[in-house]
Fold this sequence. Notes:
- The protein is an alpha/beta fold.
- Among the domains are: 111-278, Rossmann fold (3-Layer(aba) Sandwich); 371-438, no CATH class.
- It is 28% helix and 19% strand.
- The chain is built from 14 helices and 17 strands.
- It has a 6-stranded mixed beta sheet with strand order 1-14-13-17-15-16, sandwiched between helices.
- α5 links the parallel β10 (198-204) and β11 (224-229).
Amino acid sequence: MGVLTFKGGVHPFEGKELSKDKPVQEYLPHGEMVYLLSQHIGAPASPIVKKGDRVLAGQKIAEAGGFVSAPIHSSVSGTVKKIEPRVTAQGGKCDAIIVENDGQYEEVSYEPVTDLNALTKKEILERIKEGGVVGMGGAGFPTHVKLSPKEPEKIEYVLVNGAECEPYLTSDYRRMLDDGEKVVKGLEIMLKLFDHARGCICIEDNKPECIARMKELTQKMSRIEVKELKTKYPQGGERTLIYAVTGREINSSMLPADVGCVVDNVDTVTAIYEAVMLGRPVMDRIVTVTGDGIENPGNFLVRTGTNVRELIEAAGGLKGDTQKVISGGPMMGFALYQLDVPCAKTSSSVLCLQEDPVAKTEETACINCGRCVSVCPGHVLPSRLATFAMHGDMDSFQKFDGMECCECGCCSYICPAKRPLTQSIKSMRKMVLAMRKKK
């Protein structure tokens, strides 16, 4: 069988050569740490510490605010300074616990497990929940919720998303090469929850070293296999990944579990292993600091709450003429208007670009070329949806399946008229969701 793929997509400049061969460096922060109380989809976490309290690394400082929520843990030892709103990478504000790092990095005692078979499914899920594990590929969905479908016996595939299709990002690449054993063991834990499922580690074919490494680690495992994917953006999207591997399709009103699938990112699966077997909560993650606007691109093991400005300095600082800094990748990331924002559980990359090509482009009229339609993985009509959005025509937007857009950015990337198609559609989708919530 050849490499697996989906219909549509684009082939943007990869840029991965800047950091893919740079081993992960642990970075120990200094100064104040900012722990956002909403680093996940769902209800914000609720603080369980107060000003003046001393905390240790690994200590829970905020508990889950509901079922669809996740606790927050301190990643350093120090003193709680205050609890107040702070700016997020997305540009909004969120309540946060501010801890003054004492530089000692004293940790709590963890409760490791030596035998996975000694744990019940309920105990596994509880350790994942208490570890604060969320989707670390960017979505931030609480993992214990995702791994608790209504009918677990109907789950047939557990897909580990190692595609890393966003340009420039190499954190998952380094995770698979350097911590491949943890990825496999994390997948084994997930399979323990689903008796009838097969595990698939899904990797794009531009990462042959990772494919070889994971095949080596899983060659004697009957329930786990490595799936080779065609290099194409957005191959790592949840819907496109499921279709490429299983041939099954989902829409915006469905969950992967509706077609017998569970999908989690490589870093999430690693965090599952650490939470269940080591008793260690999510306190850090690999962040790629890259782009032609950074002096020394690389991959860093970064503690949550670390200031992005501080992390950039650790990578040699910005080059003098850098025009744009993005949290995440260039296709779906967020442009930062200030650098003093904290790294969160979902922070995968800091991308620094010398030029801002978007700012230099001038939008012109649609020429009806149809390129946006040909690349759309959701098989909608981006040009028409964007027009509806610009005119505030919510009814037509929904009639033409505007809610099926996955906001991947393929249409904006390919548009010769340089129309901000994705941005217009994204704004209208937010309005529709807000209207539905209000009703």
